[in-house]
């Protein structure tokens, strides 16, 4: 709307007052006051902004997504057409059941025990030990051991590696670990390495994961 400012007039108290007229873009100017001196009602154009709030729109979309998720499963003919409005974060992959309870490639303890001893010897024989870098050595050995076990590709197994590095200063040291596991499918391998100035104790837990 546009406003037209008229000349100020003095009221009864001697103060100047301004009269403002509102103009409709499609019509003529309306007087701001009628014959009695009272101001006329203001007319406003209807807003074209959507009245639905953002919170209501969010609730509506969440209800629609929940209705799709709780609906019947898609048939094979519908599955070929795509996601059908579902976002990828809500669609779980569907695989056919194998009905297998055992691993096709089970874990071999004897092979991995010898591999672990050879790995520590080859990694630490030429290593120059520095006490301030013992933490970094333990981190690197832990990651390398876990990667070596993963390369063997034993099916349905997860690995947890733990490496302890210490100085040899005529002290007594014992390393004890405990775990809750399945004695038939889970396993643990430990190996140690000794040098004139330091020692390393490495342990890897092999946990069966279906």
TrEMBL record:
<comment type="similarity">
    <text>Belongs to the dynein light chain Tctex-type family.</text>
</comment>
<feature type="compositionally biased region" description="Basic and acidic residues">
    <location>
        <begin position="1"/>
        <end position="14"/>
    </location>
</feature>
<feature type="region of interest" description="Disordered">
    <location>
        <begin position="1"/>
        <end position="52"/>
    </location>
</feature>
<dbReference type="InterPro" id="IPR038586">
    <property type="entry name" value="Tctex-1-like_sf"/>
</dbReference>
<dbReference type="InterPro" id="IPR005334">
    <property type="entry name" value="Tctex-1-like"/>
</dbReference>
<dbReference type="GO" id="GO:0007018">
    <property type="term" value="P:microtubule-based movement"/>
</dbReference>
<protein>
    <recommendedName>
        <fullName>Dynein light chain</fullName>
    </recommendedName>
</protein>
<dbReference type="Pfam" id="PF03645">
    <property type="entry name" value="Tctex-1"/>
</dbReference>
<dbReference type="GO" id="GO:0005868">
    <property type="term" value="C:cytoplasmic dynein complex"/>
</dbReference>
<dbReference type="GO" id="GO:0005737">
    <property type="term" value="C:cytoplasm"/>
</dbReference>
<dbReference type="GO" id="GO:0045505">
    <property type="term" value="F:dynein intermediate chain binding"/>
</dbReference>
């Amino acid at each position: 709307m546009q406003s037209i400012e008229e000349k100020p007039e003095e009221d009864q108290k001697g103060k100047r007052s301004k009269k403002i007229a509102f103009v409709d873009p499609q019509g003529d100017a309306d007087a701001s006051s009628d014959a009695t001196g009272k101001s006329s009602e203001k007319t406003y154009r209807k807003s074209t902004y959507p009245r639905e709030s953002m919170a209501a729109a969010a609730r509506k979309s969440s209800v629609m997504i929940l209705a799709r998720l709780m609906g019947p499963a898609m048939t094979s003919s519908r599955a070929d057409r795509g996601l059908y409005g579902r976002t990828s974060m809500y669609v779980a992959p569907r695989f056919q059941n194998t009905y297998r309870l055992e691993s096709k490639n089970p874990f071999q303890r004897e092979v991995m025990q010898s591999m672990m001893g050879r790995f520590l010897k080859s990694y630490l024989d030429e290593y120059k030990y520095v006490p301030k870098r013992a933490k970094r050595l333990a981190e690197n050995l832990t990651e390398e051991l876990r990667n070596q076990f993963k390369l063997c590709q034993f099916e349905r197994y997860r690995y947890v590696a733990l490496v302890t590095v210490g100085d040899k200063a005529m002290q007594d040291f014992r390393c004890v670990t405990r775990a809750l596991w399945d004695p038939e499918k889970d396993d643990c391998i430990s190996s140690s390495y000794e040098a004139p100035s330091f020692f390393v104790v490495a342990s890897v837990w092999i946990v069966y994961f279906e």
